[in-house]
Amino acid sequence: MRNILRKYTSLSFTFSLVFFLAIGIIHCTKQPKRAESNKKTLSFNGREGKRLFIHYCAPCHGEDAEGSGRYFPSYIEPQPPDFINSEYLKETNENVMFRAIKFGSKALGKSNYSPSYDETLRDEEIRYIIEYLKFLKMSKDEES
Amino acid sequence: MENLLKIVSKPDNVAIIIMMVMVGFFVFFAFFQALKNDRKKASAKEEKNKLEKEKIHTWPYLARKEFLVAILVVVILLAWSIFVDAPLEEHSNPNLTPNPAKAPWYFLGLQELLVYFDPWIAGAIIPLLIIAGLMLIPYIDINPRGNGYFTFAERKFEILIFCFGFLVLWIFLIIIGVFMRGPGWLWFWPWQEWDPSRVVAEINVDLTQLIGVNSRSTPGFLIGGSVIILYFSVGMIMLYLYLRKKKPNLLHKLGLTRYLISSFLLWSMIGIAIKIIMKLTLNIKYIWVTPWFNI
Amino acid sequence: MPFQEKKEEEKSFALHFLILTFLLIVFSIWALWEEIGALRPWKTYQKLYYGLKYERTAQELEQARQEFKNPQVQEEYQKLKSLLDKEEKELDKPDKQKEYKEIEEGIKEVDKEISGINNGLLVARNKLLEQEYQYKKFRKERNKKKIEELTERIRILEDRKKALVNKRDDLKKIFESFTLILEKYSEKLKLFPFSSRIEELEKLLKSLKKPKIEIEQYYIEDLNKVDRCTSCHVGIDNPAQSSYPSPYTTHPAHYLYLENHQSRQFGCTICHQGQGRATSSIDKAHGRIEFWEEPMYKDENTQASCQHCHQDIEHLKGAETLKEGDKILKRSVCFGCHRIDGYENIVKISPPLSRVGEKVNYTWLVKWLMDPSQIMDGATMPKYDFSEEDAQAITDYLYSLTQREKNDKSAKEEIDWNLYDRGKIIYSQSICSICHSANGRGGAYKEMYAPDLSRVGSKVKREWLKKWFKNPENFFKNARMSRYRFTEKEIDSLTEYLSGEYVDWDIEEVKMSMPLPIEESSIQKGASLIKEYGCFGCHDIEGMRDIEEIGPYLKIDELEEMVAEGLTSFGDKHLQDLDFGKLTKAPKTRTDYLRIKLENPRAFRDDAKMPQYNLSEEEINALVTLVLGFSKEEPLVRYRIEKEVSDYQPTGEFAEILEDVKCLSCHKIYRKGADYAPDLSIEGSKVKEEWLSNYLKSPDIIRPMIEQMPKFNLGRESQMSGLKLSKNEMDIITDYIMTVLVSDEIPKNFLKEKNISQAEIEKGRLIYFEKGCQACHQIGREGGGVGPPLTTVGSRLTPGYIYKHLLNPRISNINTVEPNLGLSDEEALSLMKFLSNLQGKKKR
């Protein structure tokens, strides 16, 4: 053993030095963990949408968008649809939703109870509201 | 232990760990080879020729090994630079002095000396002596042996003096400065937590005060001065007498100038060690207090 | 030696050399790659971006090409093209060509002549100058003559030139007329929308093939900021990128934030913080590294930066979290203990305690001090964690200020049920439940911070309650409750009702049956506890104000160390000044410090004096957002936006009534007051006078119950004690509103004809139902309840106001829920006529 060591002493020395140094240096370099993006929380745009929804839409559509707004008369047909517990949002194209909010339910050929918000809300604000609705639907789906 | 790990893992201090390992290794290796050579020489005293055959040319045999090591060092440095970033520390705040405020590691030996010596001595005179001494080595070293091979027996004195000066008075002080000095430049064992509000009562006296004489008065001045002068003169004279008796050839070869210089340097080195011990044991601050410098 | 070692000369180091050289090459290349690539991640991001943009542009180009292929479009295009071709052919005809060439030649000839003349003119002028010089010097006759000659010659030449130039212009005109129509058509073709778009896209595509990959930065010189954020977030300020993936997505609410704060002028870190100059890694650029003191704000905390320039955050769109934090700060009276510049003059909602012995029962107060939120729902007072002895000591002290002994009044006394019933009616008429919650209902107007009444019968003593109803200000100078004009009997009834209805049976069990004396030692202990915990910071206590060492900023012993600096410049604090105390492992940023402190004030030190506030996570986040932005640094003058302070100061008798009834606790006039009830600034132009005086006497229902105006019994002569008025207060109010609170924008006497024809009313009615107004408004019994019922709107609102409101609902309330339906003037007029006709049944 000693003889073998003597033979390859310089080579083994080189290798071991490099090896240990590499380990030491790699140990020194610790990459910080990046926070994982949580898809379950609402983005900024969604929060804006929530604020707008609660201010403009909740009186008729309900705070939770389930159609039971306390200020919408109960005897009028059609009632505001339940967006969350039905497949309404999944089946509806985003552009259609956009037009519904912007130009009113009349533009979709439905009743005229949901007014046009063309003059009141900007396009971006309408998109934020749509994002919020989608988030509500997604949360409800995940709960069940 | 946490404190120790914190110090050790600081990117700046990685160099010190490596230094400790390397110094230890190379000293060990040098001594190992030297002793091996000495043993060989002792056993081969009769066969002088064999020894001659043991020599090889520096170029290319040593040079190629050195070249390989050079490549290795470059590789290590490149790897280090890739993996370890230069550290970004806090905003410098002129209202907040770091405690302890430590010099870079290569000067920590001198900073440690400040504990024992007046700043003029520790910061100016001693470094001057170190540099001057190192420069003078080729001139005062008259021992021609040991060229190109490890040996200890043939250069005992020179090696021992160098090891004393380098390992004890330099490396060891650096290690103390890195690991054992905490806030307030107080002594902290490596496993102790650095407590910035720790207070240690230390009363330092000057040498003459031990015998009741005020060090700044004239008698104190005279006493201190005479101690120093006596130390050097007696030391040098005693050494001279000793050498004249035991190694007159050496003395003859040295000559007076060389002797004076080398003995002065030798006694200075020993003096530093003595002063350190005096400070640690007797809490002696200064031996000689003058208006221009304090030793 | 048993083993023959190889001679040194014979040893081969080739293998070593090979391995080492190989390592050297590997590491060198690696280091180079790191430097070029890995440490410059923005290059990757930019390449990805341009790749993505290239793809999308290519898609758009395809689409545009498809659209162009549309037969209709092609038809138009070809038509234009054929016109152009025709013109070209016309021009190509030989005689036209000949004419064209002739004129061209002619122009050339004229040009040549003109240049010859120009030459001659030049020579002549030079000679003239020479002669003039000679004449000036030598005054010789011949020079003078020469000058005259030359001047004459120049004149002739210039005339000739002029003629030639005119000729040339004429020729040029004719020349151009050939190509005029040609150019017109080719211009049209170039600008043809579809093909020009294709060209545009093609050009864009070409430029995207080899995009320039370089650092992009905004250098804001006067702030000394260099922001390189857009090196990775390429094009984030481009509103067209909202469908791009992160990090290229358009900045959220771009229209709100970036349009008002252009990147070129502001950069990014002025709002978001972070390390603007860093580009070598995401964490470094976002400042989320160990020693960078301003890491990038998370989500809403970014709004903290708004305060650096905007002094007025109450009306700032886009800073909702900040506003929320401001509200919470005012409600929690943080500035009672912590000094905060800018909040010195805010009225504290905490009641004075000097006469609290008169007001509350002893046992109740002890229980309250131990844990307020257990005793009363929605209590804003925080929890100090007092032990029972400590709470008793403090109560003893407070009682000792006005009472000689500690006593409880039981609510289990005999209730007079007649008065109780009457009190119940008065309670509902006065609509106390708008501000006061009780048993889980009511209290919609949260910003009044009116105490919950669920157990008020056990809390207060009856005599005090009667005095309170008589005039709240006698007890609490800054009370926001109105002084209802109750008669004595009404007060008794109300008190009876409250004492009988809202009782805390647990406290009733432990109430003292007999009054007990208060011990001196307990009083002393209570006083020292109050001083230690700084109750006087929020509550006014006799004997603990205006004393040097107990100023409003708690300059006592260790409290001074902690709060003396106050929160005014919390946002400037250095990380080393944040004392995390026990928590050595916590992440050390300002945000974390604030959040931990608000969640659990005693997290850092066990002996901290700050009490525990019941704040939800969102509320804490809002407060954190607010406080993070507190800073002593003044913004640059050109960035600063001042607060618009209302300078409305009512005077005269109206002002007295306003003070007494506290109208501005709910209403707003000229930007002063609160936002709960409608803004009265243009009320005079808005409503009709008869309606107003009837309404003030007895308010009927306009809005849903939670916003219904209470019956203050205005106009009752007998109850206006303390106010010396020249006439009935109702008249004063009506007069003031009708004369002062008017607006020029609303036309007076808008509807001139008294009788509107039935046809017009019918037209208006059709529009009403067509637009879907009945979804939110009620007429009679039909309709929704989002907006006020319109059954009698014709007798309530002036026609001018109705008209203006229909055209823009935001005219009197910016935050109205009513959408702007984009009505035309005619539609608005018809609707107005219809609505003005809705007068309802005439009241008695």
Automatic annotation (TrEMBL), chain A:
Keywords, sorted A to Z: Heme, Iron, Metal-binding
Gene Ontology molecular function terms on file: electron transfer activity; heme binding; metal ion binding
Ranges where the Cytochrome c domain occurs: 44-137
A Pfam family recorded for this sequence: Cytochrome_CBB3
Designated name of the protein: Cytochrome c domain-containing protein
Organism: marine sediment metagenome
